[in-house]
Design a protein that fits this description.
alpha+beta; 4 helices; 36% helix; 86 residues; globular; single chain
């Protein structure tokens, strides 16, 4: 399934260039594609996540490793919104 996650970050350039997000998802059999505002006017970013199912994704996001990755990338966890394709 495909899920779009939208959230704010501290530093868009750092977040966009960080390998931590891809490493986290790939280690769990998922793929994450990052998106940002091309004009650079916002700290809101998006990720297209390809996951087997929503349960797998939610379980991955609830791990301590997810928290470490989010902190490393400057993700504002309280702003995360998920959009499902189903």
């Amino acid at each position: 399934m495909q899920v779009i996650a939208i959230h704010d970050v501290d530093d868009v350039k750092h977040w966009f260039n960080s390998p931590a997000r891809s490493e986290f998802f790939e280690a769990r059999g998922m793929k994450a594609t990052a998106f940002r505002d091309p004009a650079g006017n916002a700290n809101t970013v998006a990720v297209l996540i390809e996951a087997p199912d929503i349960d797998s994704l939610q379980a991955a996001l609830a791990t301590p490793e997810a928290k470490v990755t989010e902190e490393h990338d400057g993700v504002h966890v309280d702003t995360i919104k998920l959009f499902l394709d189903a």
